[in-house]
UniProtKB/TrEMBL annotation:
<dbReference type="InterPro" id="IPR036179">
    <property type="entry name" value="Ig-like_dom_sf"/>
</dbReference>
<dbReference type="Pfam" id="PF13927">
    <property type="entry name" value="Ig_3"/>
</dbReference>
<dbReference type="InterPro" id="IPR003598">
    <property type="entry name" value="Ig_sub2"/>
</dbReference>
<feature type="domain" description="Ig-like">
    <location>
        <begin position="118"/>
        <end position="202"/>
    </location>
</feature>
<feature type="domain" description="Fibronectin type-III">
    <location>
        <begin position="759"/>
        <end position="870"/>
    </location>
</feature>
<keyword id="KW-0393">Immunoglobulin domain</keyword>
<dbReference type="InterPro" id="IPR003599">
    <property type="entry name" value="Ig_sub"/>
</dbReference>
<keyword id="KW-1003">Cell membrane</keyword>
<keyword id="KW-0677">Repeat</keyword>
<dbReference type="GO" id="GO:0030426">
    <property type="term" value="C:growth cone"/>
</dbReference>
<feature type="domain" description="Ig-like">
    <location>
        <begin position="223"/>
        <end position="312"/>
    </location>
</feature>
<dbReference type="InterPro" id="IPR013783">
    <property type="entry name" value="Ig-like_fold"/>
</dbReference>
<dbReference type="GO" id="GO:0098609">
    <property type="term" value="P:cell-cell adhesion"/>
</dbReference>
<comment type="function">
    <text>Neural cell adhesion molecule involved in the dynamics of cell adhesion and in the generation of transmembrane signals at tyrosine kinase receptors. During brain development, critical in multiple processes, including neuronal migration, axonal growth and fasciculation, and synaptogenesis. In the mature brain, plays a role in the dynamics of neuronal structure and function, including synaptic plasticity.</text>
</comment>
<keyword id="KW-0130">Cell adhesion</keyword>
<dbReference type="InterPro" id="IPR003961">
    <property type="entry name" value="FN3_dom"/>
</dbReference>
<feature type="domain" description="Fibronectin type-III">
    <location>
        <begin position="658"/>
        <end position="754"/>
    </location>
</feature>
Length: 1209
């Protein structure tokens, strides 16, 4: 099992790190921690006793009690090792709790998922046939996984399928063809699913795409969308995530795709980008500003197709302000602020040491108001860890806040006797950092200096001296009240550098020397450098201006932030904001930018308000009622922007009645009889007062009746029993406790739709050609639609060819009856459609429906029509026989797609650059004579209908040459057999020959069965071991090769013992008896003469051999069928020849003759007839195109055990 684990946890004084684990046999869930800085100042003893516990799916989970789980001694980490039990039982949601003497912290909830590594199931290879110009979609459907795979379409050579605006991969992994062309035909479209986390790539079965050329391709087709379907798609996206909108069109020429935003008409190029040849619109990090309506437009020269997307953005909780951990002294008041945002608005809950406050006993000193927790007059027992958790339907976030109530003696952390140096006019800051609980209070002994306006004490205890002068130099003392702690610091204010004697103008004669002087007054503590700027050329004729520069010099930088923000002229709808610019650092301020934060509805989000030029430090600001405003100002110069100023004081505007109404008022009714009114909810910033609601008003359109109204707090609003698709006038007004908004705009909408009641009428079908028809109809009435008419659907079903009797089918190729598909005709004004991709000479049934957003209406009556004939496809097969060296017989089968009544075939072939053409009647074979046996011929065969000839099948063939007996025979002797092998000629016709063999130890001449020259191998069996044999090879009654061999001697062992031989003989005898009984039973107890048997053999020779079998034939007796091997010996009595070792001595006792084909025609051994062999003309022909065909073997003397057993079967 492989696992995923995403865990991020916080512990007392420690932080858990984030881990991701995927393993087949080992799963580790970690619970780690690190020290918090503040605690380094305290006693470390509580850190040594941290206790961990786990909660799984709300129940306590003890890893130590599970034998399959290993735990860590120093942390809460546990590991699950694959053992006897399934690892899937550990799937669930986990929280880790870490506790010590100072409190308990908890982690965020983490989910552990286990799953098997994806595997492929066995599938059939797909074959898809598409007509040229039509669209095509290749499906992938990879195994599902918690992590969706990456899809790659590749060929069998592992190269990516080339993609373009015509061929595109969709988000669903499918491969879309806007239209197909002949070059798209291939059999290796392979979908590879890449599972990144599993490190696995699964290749699916190859898909074969066949593009059939068409003589009737419509080269101009208007666009339609393959994906998505329908007219509108609603998309929900989460803030911060990426989103891709997809539009994949079909059409010819290939449509282009453009995108636009309908909400404000502007598509942000910085926030969006188009990909995948314009088919995708990507949002990399979506937020609320991207919410709205979008439209994709597919366009080519024939028209356009559109699809609308409504994008709604929601958000998982995210922090606006986290409560801070801190030290407190007894008696102090604690205020923890925890604010989070999200859509929907998150719910804030507080816990104490992991226990929800709602489940604890009430504590008068502890109060919670929303995200703010107050704890008054704290004591040491209030030391704890508080958890703030924000949650909505999209997620949960949690933060642990450490509150430590302790008394610590004050300390001064800044080192003593520190020296500060500044130049006259600069600002000096003397640090005095302290630590303690309660926070130490400090004072300075130079009270006279503190009384000056340019000297101030900062909140952190530091002393700030602005526009320092030499008289500010001296010693300063920082001390803590009620203690003897103090430090001293020295300030040195250095004089500015001043040029007291600048260089004077000089006139000098060419070639003479000149001296320029430059004297400067510099502080004794500074090092200085004087440099000169003048002409870059050293030519004595150059006259220029020389400048003396003094160092240290002034450096320019971005300005300091403005300060002392003041609010004046405060009114309900405006105020005046003024400020003092900060130091411009020798670069004039060009611009000020004013921002505001509204604490009621937009806290934590600073919004741009206005900008002003650098010479203006006062602006009038418009305000909105019922808001809490703070402002800040940022300065800009040529070096950049300053840090924002400190926020101004908060100004609260009084409430007022709304001054605007919600926008985008519309109906989104989906159920019949229900009116659903929706609108874009207003920002809280524009509520203008408490008790904000929406006043919804509606009435039937066309009637000046009384308005129905209702007050609600959010969109949408539902009205029941409103009728089916009835028009209504609707208005939505904003109201609060102080009054109503202005009169809203009147909008007309409709109640919910229902399916159409009628089907299109007067449907007329006109064939354009064999694969294209035009359909026209009368549109349905508006009242019967019961909604907005979106279009029509045409249902087509192929019933079969027009006349099965008129099409002679061989092999059952015409088997595609029952094909059906649906054509979507979008648009309410459509009254005709051109249907393409039909099969010629076919009978079709057509039905139509009208549809709206609710669905389809009833079907129209079926309309049958016929498509005219077209050109046929290529013949299904073309094979060859070669009766002689100069002739070929062609055999073929009709096309799988006749597309009409076949009237004949057209055959083309070429010989010595002389083309030949034959027009053939409806036949399936033809013999061509007088061919040249030295060359190969290319044959082009096509079928014809009344429309014309179709595609040709192309094959190459040559005639077969007359054969002869084999040469270069290899002989290998065994103990009781001899193996013979030779190389058969590829283009040579088969001949037969025999082997005569004589045992020279004393025996007679014996003859083998008939042997074919195309066999390439033969085994002569039934020989005596350890004997010398003479082999004579006969062809056409003459010997063409002789050979003497000796079989191997018998092998020793118990097999040569008499008792073993006797046992085997008894077993063989018993088997023979059983075989004879079975043979008698199969023959129904009857007996037959030798003559009947031979006649049966002759009958078997007259039967043809199987085309696809090598050396086999069929012998049929009733319903039974037997198969025999060509190398199997004939059945008959053993021939007894003379003991002489030549054929001459054999002639006294037997008369042997051979026909021209090498078969015996005489008698031997008691005048037994030897069956004749098939002649040259009856032997199978071997062709470079056709498989090799062997002639049947004939009954003869059995030379092998196999032959005997087969005869018994």
């Amino acid at each position: 099992a492989s696992t995923h684990c995403h865990i991020h946890m916080l512990y007392p004084y420690r932080t858990l790190y984030s881990w991701r684990i995927r393993s087949r046999s080992f799963t580790q869930v970690k619970c780690m921690y690190s020290f918090i800085y503040l605690l380094l100042l305290l006693s470390p003893s509580p850190l040594l006793f941290v206790r961990f516990r786990w909660v799984k799916d709300g129940q306590q989970f003890d890893p130590a009690s599970d034998p399959q789980v290993l735990t860590s001694e120093k942390s809460g980490t546990f590991s699950v090792v694959s053992g006897d039990g399934p690892i899937s039982k550990y799937m669930g949601k986990y929280r880790c709790y870490a506790s010590n003497e100072l409190g308990t912290a908890i982690s965020e909830e983490a989910q552990l998922i286990t799953e098997n590594t994806p595997i492929l199931t066995k599938e059939k290879r797909q074959r898809k046939t598409v007509e040229e110009g039509d669209k095509a979609i290749l499906n992938c459907n990879p195994p599902s996984s918690s992590t969706p795979p990456n899809i790659h379409w590749m060929d069998k050579s592992k190269f990516h399928i080339h993609q373009s605006d015509r061929v595109t991969k969709g988000l669903d992994g499918r491969l879309y063809f806007s239209h197909v062309i002949p070059s798209d035909s291939r059999d290796d479209y392979i979908c590879h699913a890449q599972y990144v986390t599993a490190r696995t790539i699964l290749p699916k079965e190859p898909i074969q795409l066949i593009v059939t050329p068409s003589n009737s391709v419509v080269w101009h087709r208007k666009p339609h969308l393959l994906h998505p379907t329908g007219s509108e798609t609603r998309v929900l996206a989460l803030r911060g995530q990426s989103l891709v909108l997809e539009c994949i069109p079909k059409g010819l020429p290939t449509p282009s795709v453009t995108w636009q935003r309908l909400t404000n008409g502007v598509l942000s190029t910085s926030r969006t980008s188009t990909q995948n040849f314009g088919r995708w619109l990507r949002f990399n990090s979506i937020d609320e500003s991207d919410q709205g309506d979008y439209e994709c437009i597919a366009n080519n020269s024939q028209g356009t197709a559109k699809h609308f997307f409504t994008v709604t953005v929601e958000a998982a909780p995210y922090w606006i302000k986290k409560p801070a951990s801190n030290l407190y002294a007894p008696g102090e008041n604690v205020r923890l602020e925890c604010h989070a945002e999200g859509i929907p608005t998150p719910t804030i809950t507080w816990s104490l040491n992991g226990n929800p406050l709602s489940g604890l006993d009430p504590e008068p000193r502890r109060t919670v108001h929303g995200g703010t927790l107050r704890l008054g007059d704290v004591t040491k027992s209030d030391t704890a860890v508080y958890q703030c958790e924000a949650s909505n339907k999209h997620g949960i976030i949690l933060v642990n806040t450490y509150i430590h109530v302790i008394e610590l003696p004050p300390q001064i952390l800044t080192r003593d006797m520190k020296v500060y140096r500044v130049t006259q006019g600069q600002t000096a800051v003397l640090d005095c950092e302290t630590f303690g609980s309660p926070r130490p209070k400090i004072h300075d002994t130079l009270e006279l200096v503190l009384s000056h306006a340019w000297v101030s004490q900062l909140v952190n205890g530091s002393l700030q001296i602005s526009n320092a002068s030499p008289k500010d130099s001296g010693s300063y003392m920082c001390s803590v009240f009620d203690s003897n702690l103090s430090i001293a610091a020295s300030l040195d204010v250095l004089n500015r550098t001043v040029i007291i004697s600048p260089p004077e103008h000089k006139r000098v004669q060419r070639g003479k020397s000149v001296t320029l002087t430059c004297d400067a007054l510099v502080d004794d503590e500074l090092r200085f450098l004087i440099s000169w700027l003048g002409p870059l050329s050293l030519d004595p004729e150059v006259v220029g201006i020389y400048i003396c520069c003094r160092y240290p010099h002034l450096l320019s930088d971005r300005p300091d932030p403005p300060f002392n923000l003041t609010l004046t002229n405060k009114q309900s709808r405006s105020l005046t904001l003024s400020w003092i610019p900060g130091n411009d650092h020798n670069s004039p301020i060009n611009e000020f930018v004013v921002e505001y934060e509204e604490l009621r509805s937009r806290k934590g989000h600073w919004q741009f308000l206005l900008n002003s030029s650098g010479d203006i430090q006062q602006v009038k600001i418009p305000l909105q009622p019922f808001c809490n405003y703070t402002f800040r100002v940022t300065a800009f110069n040529e070096f950049g922007r300053s840090e924002p100023s400190n926020p101004s004081e908060t100004y609260r505007t009084p409430p007022a009645a709304p001054d605007r109404n919600p926008e985008d008022v519309r109906t989104i009714s989906t159920e019949p009889g229900v009116l659903t009114i929706a609108w874009k909810e207003m920002d809280k910033y524009y509520f203008n007062g408490p008790g904000y609601q929406y006043k919804v008003m509606w009435r039937a359109a066309g009637h000046r009746s009384h308005w129905n109204q209702s007050a609600v707090s959010s969109s949408p609003f539902v009205v029941r029993e409103a009728g089916t698709f009835q028009p209504f006038e609707i208005k939505v007004k904003a109201v609060n406790q102080l009054g109503e908004g202005p009169d809203p705009i009147l909008v007309t909408g409709h109640s919910g739709e229902d399916r159409p009641l009628m089907a299109p009428q007067n449907i007329a079908i006109t064939p354009v050609n064999g694969s294209v028809v035009q359909v026209k109809w009368v549109p349905v009435s508006r009242d019967s639609v019961q909604g907005h008419l979106l279009g029509y659907k045409i249902y087509l079903r192929r019933l079969g060819p027009q006349d099965m009797r008129g099409i002679r089918v061989q092999g059952g190729h015409e088997s595609d009856n029952g094909d059906s598909w649906v054509v979507d005709v979008s648009g309410s004004n459509q009254v005709e459609e051109v249907l393409e991709g039909l099969r010629p000479y076919s009978k079709y049934e057509l039905k139509m429906t009208a549809y709206n957003s609710k669905g389809e209406g009833p079907f129209s009556g079926p309309h049958e029509f016929d498509t005219p004939e077209g050109v046929p496809g290529a013949p299904a097969s073309l094979t060859f026989d070669s009766p002689s060296e100069t002739s070929l017989t062609l055999h073929w089968s009709p096309p799988r797609d006749p597309n009409g009544k076949l009237i004949g075939y057209l055959l083309h072939y070429q010989e010595s650059n002389v083309p030949h053409s034959l027009c053939l009647n409806y036949v399936y074979h033809i013999t061509l004579d007088n061919l040249d046996p030295k060359i190969f011929y290319a044959f082009y065969l096509s079928a014809s209908t009344s429309t014309g000839p179709g595609e040709s099948i192309v094959r190459t063939a040559a005639t077969l040459l007359d054969g002869g007996p084999p040469s270069n025979i290899t002989v290998t002797a065994g103990e009781t057999n001899v193996n013979l092998s030779w190389v058969a000629g590829e283009r040579y016709r088969n001949v037969v020959f025999y082997i005569m063999y004589l045992n020279k130890n004393g025996g007679r001449w014996e003859m083998s069965e008939m042997i074919n020259s195309t066999q390439s191998f033969y085994q002569l069996q039934g020989l005596q071991s350890g004997s010398q044999y003479r082999l004579s090879f006969l062809f056409n009654n003459s010997t063409f090769w002789e050979k003497e061999i000796k079989t191997e001697g018998p092998k020793g062992g118990f097999a040569t013992q008499g008792w073993f031989i006797g046992l085997i003989s008894a077993i063989v005898l018993l088997l023979l008896v059983l075989l004879i009984l079975c043979f008698i039973k199969r023959s129904k107890g009857g007996k037959y003469s030798v003559k009947d048997k031979e006649e049966g053999q002759v009958d078997s020779e007259a039967r043809p051999m199987k085309d696809d079998a090598f050396g086999e034939y069929r012998f049929v007796t009733g319903d039974n069928e037997e198969k025999r091997s060509v190398s199997q010996p004939s059945l008959g009595v053993e021939s007894k020849l003379g003991s002489d070792d030549s054929l001459a001595g054999y002639g006294d006792s037997v008369d042997i003759q051979f026909n021209e084909d090498g078969s015996f025609i005489g008698q031997y051994s008691g005048h037994r007839d030897v069956p004749g062999a098939v002649g040259h003309d009856s032997s199978g022909a071997t062709s470079p195109v056709n498989p090799m065909i062997m002639p049947p073997s004939y009954p003869g003397v059995p030379n092998s055990v196999t032959g005997i057993l087969n005869r018994g079967n």
